[in-house]
Design goal:
The structure holds 2 protein chains of 2 kinds. By secondary structure, chain A is of the alpha+beta class. Chain A has 13 helices and 13 strands. In chain A, strands 3-4-11-6-10-9 form a 6-stranded mixed barrel. Chain B is globular, with a radius of gyration of 17 Å. Classes of the chains: A alpha+beta, B alpha/beta.
Chain lengths: ~400, ~240
């Protein structure tokens, strides 16, 4: 880098400073997408892995898929006997609706070890008792806070035929209320003990609980192993027994949907930033050098050789890229931090400002790629123009 | 003129051909310390090319050139640039000033890009030329005469041993022309060799040596004793 660059970059409108706005926007976009991806990933990892997810395996029934073993009582018992397995909790789904106090119908699930409910009132003692329920603080316009600690009558459906059924009532004590923005199993879910959830699911199918668990089985189940290092071996063993088993930690690391989109956007952002800086450098350097050939000729007369003229352009590229990287990284970080709140609402998971900060690798890329890309592009772009002595070019033009 | 002093410029059989044709066919010249020499000739005769060769901007395609005793043909491009920066001041027509610098910065630019180190020297020289009040002005706002004087000041500020000037009084009124010629004469009196390329015979008459360049060939016309200032002013007027 030549010291002349400090003057030309700052004072000459034809310098590579013209690349600054475009590169700043690109760097900001990269940083923002990196922050959003980091925030989403951190929230999900904390939510899933923080509740013991590192030692958990999820079994799925995939109803209708004959190649997957159903999660019947005997199957789950066999899964529980696999070496290293500490606990198997089956999830049965059904619906609870209002019998008194309001109008609502809530999906119900078993409270599994994978559910790290953000409890805001009351206390969850694992496992739940058969007459206990954990509800969202508010659901479908009903405020459950006044009902905390009380036994409440809930309605559920007992099927009597293919398309007929009667209403039944179960009294459950509301032991805890959780933040309704937590929606890992969907909005407004009531969490029950395994036995109660199985009872409701069996009634909905019009069968006794024991028969339902023995034939149809659970929708899914969570297997808890004794130590994280056993997860891979137990997963393999369960798969060998015909279960659809996947380690929760693996699923977290292969997140679909919004997380995947943010991650993809970030990778594309890195590519666009690098190639954009390269292309900008190549085009702008050639244009800039041509426009300033007379000034370069004067510098040549003052003792600057062609290598120094190239260093002037390189210096301008480093300054433009460096400033664009810093401005873009700062703007992108502020933007992604300000998106933490809206993102939390979209995902239903708490995302802190710290979560939404881009990681050091991505921030480093946003900081360095504009300068590096622009510099390399400048080397290519200026090669043709500076091949001939600027003095001769300027004289030919004059 | 001291003929016993070692020559600052010794060029023998200098030639340069442009790719598109034209250039300089042959130039032999010797410039000693304390002399002012003029090269006259019609447009396209190779005057500017000769200046660029002596300024080490171009390399001759034939002949030899010694500057301050150094055989420039044996120098690397970087060494030629360094020698130019150290020992040669150049004022080229139409390729005058750096528009992103103000007046004093343009003068200080002769030393390289560390401008602030040479602020005092540059401002003092502008003061000597009666241009102190313009020191901070953008050069784009100065008149042609003022710009030419700043360009001469930049060429002279390092007190180089060789000063090369292309059309020093072109487009200047007599007062500005006289001021520029005085500055160049001061360089010669300090011990530099000054070579002017000019169309103006009055300017050439005011010099100690006179060459004519015609169709690419340089001919030596006259050596003269140092003229008195009043004589030079009469000629320029």
């Amino acid at each position: 880098m030549s010291r002349w660059s400090l003057y030309t970059w700052k004072r000459d409108g034809r310098s590579l400073r013209r690349a600054l706005p475009t590169l700043t926007v690109l760097a900001a976009l990269l940083t923002t997408s990196a922050g959003v991806a980091a925030g989403a990933a951190a929230a999900v990892e904390r939510d899933v892995l923080g509740s013991g997810g590192l030692t958990q395996i999820e079994l799925s029934s995939f109803e209708g898929d004959a190649s997957v073993r159903p999660l019947t009582t005997s199957a789950l018992r066999e899964a529980g006997r696999v070496k290293g397995v500490r606990q198997v909790v089956a999830d049965y789904s059904s619906v609870l609706y209002a019998e008194e106090n309001g109008t609502y119908d809530l999906a119900s699930h078993t409270l599994t070890p994978g559910d790290d409910l953000p409890v805001i009132e009351g206390k969850v003692s694992a496992p739940l008792g058969p007459d206990e329920v954990v509800l969202p603080a508010v659901a479908q316009g009903t405020d459950f806070v006044p009902l905390l600690g009380r036994s409440v009558a809930f309605g559920y459906t007992r099927a009597t035929g293919a398309a007929s059924g009667t209403s039944a009532v179960v009294k459950l004590r509301i032991v805890a209320l959780y933040d309704p923005s937590w929606q890992a199993d969907g909005p407004g879910v009531a969490y029950l003990s395994q036995d109660t959830a199985a009872l409701l699911a069996a009634a909905r199918a019009g069968r006794p609980a024991g028969a339902f668990q023995g034939r149809e089985g659970a929708q899914s189940a969570v297997v808890v192993v004794e130590h994280q290092r056993q997860v891979a071996a137990v997963t393999k063993s369960l798969q060998n027994k015909g279960f659809s088993a996947s380690a929760v930690s693996d699923r977290v690391r292969d997140l679909p949907g919004l997380f995947g989109a943010a991650d993809l956007a970030m990778r594309i952002g890195v590519l666009v930033l690098a190639l954009g800086a390269l292309a900008l450098g190549a085009v702008r350097a050639a244009d800039s050098a041509r426009a300033r050939i007379g000034q370069f000729a004067v510098l040549r007369i003052l003792g600057s050789g062609r290598p120094e003229l190239r260093r002037i352009l390189l210096g301008e590229a480093v300054l433009s890229g460096g400033v664009a990287g810093v401005l873009g990284a700062v703007a992108g970080t502020v933007l992604s931090a300000s998106l933490a709140g809206p993102l939390s609402d979209v995902l239903g998971l708490p995302i802190t400002v710290m979560d939404a900060l881009p990681g050091p690798a991505r921030a480093g890329a946003a900081l360095l790629l504009p300068a590096a890309g622009l510099a390399v592009g400048t080397l290519f772009g200026s090669r043709e123009v500076l091949r001939r002595d600027p003095y001769l070019t300027a004289r030919a033009h004059s | 003129m001291n003929t016993a002093s070692p020559p600052i410029v010794l060029g023998e059989g200098l030639a340069f051909r442009y790719a598109a044709g034209g250039g300089l066919s042959r130039a032999d010249l010797t410039l000693r310390a304390g002399t002012m020499a003029a090269v006259e000739g019609p447009s396209g005769s190779g005057k500017s090319t000769l200046l660029a060769l002596l300024g080490l901007i171009l390399s001759p395609t034939a002949g030899s050139l010694h500057i301050v005793g150094t055989d420039t043909g044996a120098l690397s491009p970087a060494d030629r640039d360094a020698l130019r920066l150290r020992s040669i001041g150049i004022v080229l027509q139409d390729l005058g000033l750096l528009t992103f610098l103000n007046a004093w910065e343009n003068v200080a630019a002769a030393f390289g890009p560390r401008l602030s180190r040479h602020r005092a020297t540059a401002r003092a020289l502008l003061g000597d030329l009666g241009m102190e009040h313009l020191a901070d002005s953008p050069v784009t706002e100065l008149s042609g005469g003022q710009r030419q004087r700043i360009a001469v000041a930049r060429a002279a500020v390092k007190e180089p041993l060789l000063v090369l000037v292309d059309e020093p009084t072109s487009g200047l009124d007599p007062k500005n022309a006289e001021s520029v010629m005085d500055s160049l004469r001061s360089c010669a009196e300090r011990g530099a060799a000054v070579l002017l390329v000019t169309h103006a015979s009055a300017v050439a008459e005011a010099c100690d040596q006179r060459y004519v360049l015609d169709d690419g060939v340089l001919s030596h016309v006259r050596d003269a004793n140092l003229r008195q200032g009043s004589d030079r002013r009469e000629m320029l007027g």
